[in-house]
Design goal:
The complex is a heterodimer of chains A (116) and B (499).
Chain A lengths: L25 H10 L6 H18 L34 H5 L5 E2 L2 E2 L7
Antiparallel strand pairs in A: 1-2
Chain B lengths: L15 H9 L5 H19 L2 E4 L1 H16 L10 E5 L26 H8 L3 E6 L33 H8 L5 E6 L5 H7 L2 E4 L19 E6 L2 H11 L29 E5 L9 H16 L3 E5 L4 H19 L18 H12 L2 H14 L5 H21 L5 E5 L15 H6 L5 H6 L3 E9 L2 E8 L5 H14 L17
Parallel strand pairs in B: 2-3, 2-4, 7-8, 7-9
Antiparallel strand pairs in B: 1-3, 4-6, 5-6, 5-10, 9-11, 10-11
Helix pairs in contact in B: 2-3, 5-6, 7-15, 9-11, 9-12
Classes of the chains: A mainly alpha (116), B alpha/beta (499).
């Protein structure tokens, strides 16, 4: 998502107490929904809290596994990101890329006013 | 199986390999074949809700070009073969919805490498197949375009997320289809629809132009009637692509060349955790019977252990949602995809466009992922899951010191009724228990039709070491020479099989 400069004050995520199967609170659901830029109604908060609590219960089962001294695995083949020469390879296909724009003007994407 | 059929097979009964020979021999034209499938898609296909977009004009134009190429002797094994693609492969000029309202208006401005490869090989594109929204789901109930029905029983799910791809092959709506597999999304629907599906090694097939779900897990693969058909399709799909930074630069063997290798001496490992609680008794029987067939073919069997199998579900449901929450942040209503009406400011545009564009399951996964990645939680969830991922991968590597392939069930149950688990994500997630760890380990695996339980197909899962797809296809093909589960046809599907 593009950086949203209209709202630089992120509400603090309630601090993690202890990672166990305490579940997730309605307040946490609301803050995460804000972080993920998803509007969520009061009704949905209730249902979502219930679902996410169940899912986090399943996820928290992994806390029982001792992973001390194990390196995290990001790529299953232990491959590293391949680099390429810093050369322009893309051709200009601005017009084609803009055909899906919800709103545009003069070859630019139109969005609601960002700066007053 | 190998006997000559008494009656000439109809077009629809023929496998992709048989159709390829018929096309070359001039017994049928690609236009005729394409029209046959298009007619079936119009009738049967809409009953099953297997397609999101059908492309009759493009398909017939490609078929015509294929017939000209055949006449000129300028062919590949796939020239003129009608295929269909999961609706998350970008296809230039054709809607690519990913099963989501978010992309309901999205006409891909470029072509994915997988579909470009099929185009270059002269295959025909019949259209785009229904799927769980953004490939998230195991029942194909999460599509904005409605659920797909299982051709074997219309009240049942086809499996997911490549449900449309599996149903289309089972109902003979295409000679073969493409799918993608992040946690079982090729193998599980293949099992539930009675078809052959292979998830290649991570990095074997280019992800360029696939709408991303979880980038460290996603792989595209073929879904087809037989292992031989899947081998022919994988020959076209696999290979290095500089446009995918995690695609591996390794030579691609001809997967059809080793199909007939004998299996004598093949060492099969059976993980005891795959025959444990949660596995339906009748499914277990089917799998055990299939393994007996392999013993008759000269394979040996030994019990092994993959001790982290149970915890693979937890690790997966952190890693996949975390990567999804990052990948799906690109859908912001600004440049493409759904935008809400009259946004009052930028934040309102983001929040409402995303809330309206995404369905329930996708939103839940974004929230789980954003939660797991948020400050203070990263180590406890994402880093923890990645450590577990290494342990799961290493368990497989140790097992492969002793065995050549691992076998077990693809899914713990046959297809279940549509709506049965919709409101219980945890029950749905546990259905992925036998497929998920393969994605975490980046291994290739396939599902082969191995029997029926209460009128529904059941698949055998075969897992091989990294880049040993040929071994899987060989094992699948040899099994299909001595069994006929892959030839079973759903009732009602044979209507109109006159071809």
């Amino acid at each position: 998502m593009a950086i949203d400069r209209s709202n630089s004050l992120e509400p603090e995520m309630p601090a993690p107490e202890k990672i166990d199967s305490q579940g997730i609170s309605a307040k946490q659901v609301q803050s995460v929904a804000h972080l993920a830029r998803l509007s969520i109604s009061e009704d949905e908060v209730r249902q979502t809290t219930e679902k996410l609590t169940a899912i986090m219960g399943l996820i928290d089962e992994m806390q029982a596994v001792n992973t001390d001294g194990i390196e995290p695995l990001a790529n299953p083949l232990d491959a590293v990101q391949r680099l390429r020469a810093d050369e322009v390879t893309e051709t200009n296909n601005r017009e084609q890329l803009m055909t899906n724009a919800p709103a545009k003007e003069d070859g630019l994407f139109l969005v609601p006013k960002v700066i007053d | 199986m190998n006997e000559k059929p008494l009656v000439e097979k109809s077009l629809i009964e023929k496998s992709l390999a048989e159709l390829s020979r018929s096309l070359k021999a001039g017994e049928v034209s690609s236009v005729e074949l394409t029209q046959t499938y298009l007619d079936r898609i119009n009738t049967l296909g809409s009953d099953l809700n297997a397609f999101i977009t059908v492309c009759p004009d493009i398909a017939l134009e490609q078929a015509k070009a294929a017939d000209e190429a055949i006449a000129a002797g300028n062919t590949t094994p796939l020239t003129g073969i009608p295929l269909a693609h999961k609706d998350l492969f970008c296809t230039q000029g054709i809607k690519t919805s990913c099963g989501s309202r978010m992309l309901d208006n999205f006409i891909a401005p470029y072509e994915s490498t997988v579909t470009a490869n099929f185009k270059a090989a002269g295959a025909v594109n019949l259209g785009k197949l229904n799927m769980d929204e953004f490939a998230m789901g195991g029942a194909n109930e999460n599509s904005y375009y409605g659920p797909v029905k299982n051709p074997w029983n219309h009240d049942m799910i086809p499996g997911g997320s490549s449900g449309g791809s599996a149903a289309a092959v089972a109902a003979r709506l295409a000679a073969g289809t493409t799918g993608t597999d992040t946690g079982g999304s090729i193998r599980q629907p293949a099992s539930m629809c009675g078809i052959t599906g292979i998830k290649p090694t991570y990095g074997r097939v280019s992800r360029w132009g696939m709408v991303a779900f979880a980038s460290s897990l996603d792989q595209a693969g073929p879904m087809a009637r037989t292992a031989e058909d899947a081998a022919m399709m994988l020959n076209v799909m696999a290979g290095f692509d500089p446009k995918d930074s995690t695609c591996m630069d390794r030579a691609v063997p001809d997967y059809t060349a080793t199909l007939n290798e004998p299996l004598k001496g093949l060492r099969i490992g059976l993980p005891k955790e795959y025959f444990a609680e949660g596995l339906d008794n009748k499914v277990e029987q089917v799998v055990r019977d299939a393994i007996k067939e392999y013993e008759k073919l000269g394979a040996t069997v030994k019990e092994i252990s993959l001790p982290r199998t149970h915890h693979s579900v937890a690790a997966y449901y952190v890693i996949a949602p975390a990567e999804a929450s990052a990948n799906l942040s690109r859908f912001d209503g600004a440049r493409f995809g759904h935008r809400c009406e009259d946004p009052k400011d930028l934040e309102d545009m983001y929040k409402r466009s995303r809330a309206e564009g995404f369905g329930r399951e996708v939103k839940n996964r974004i929230l789980v992922g954003a939660y797991a990645l948020s400050a203070g939680y990263y180590d406890a969830y994402y880093a923890k899951a990645q450590k577990l991922r290494r342990m799961i991968r290493d368990d497989f590597m140790s097992a492969f010191n002793e065995v050549d392939v691992i076998m077990g069930p693809t899914a713990p149950t046959p297809a279940f009724p549509i709506g049965d688990k919709t409101d219980d994500p945890v029950a749905m997630y546990l259905g992925d228990i036998f497929t998920i760890s393969v994605n975490l380990a980046g291994l290739p695996a396939m599902s082969v039709p191995a029997g029926m339980v209460d009128g529904l197909p059941v698949g055998l899962q075969i897992i091989a070491p990294h880049f040993e797809e040929a071994r899987l296809l060989n094992a699948g093909h040899q099994y299909q020479q001595v069994t006929d589960w892959h030839l079973a046809v759903p009732t009602g599907i044979d209507a109109g099989m006159k071809g």
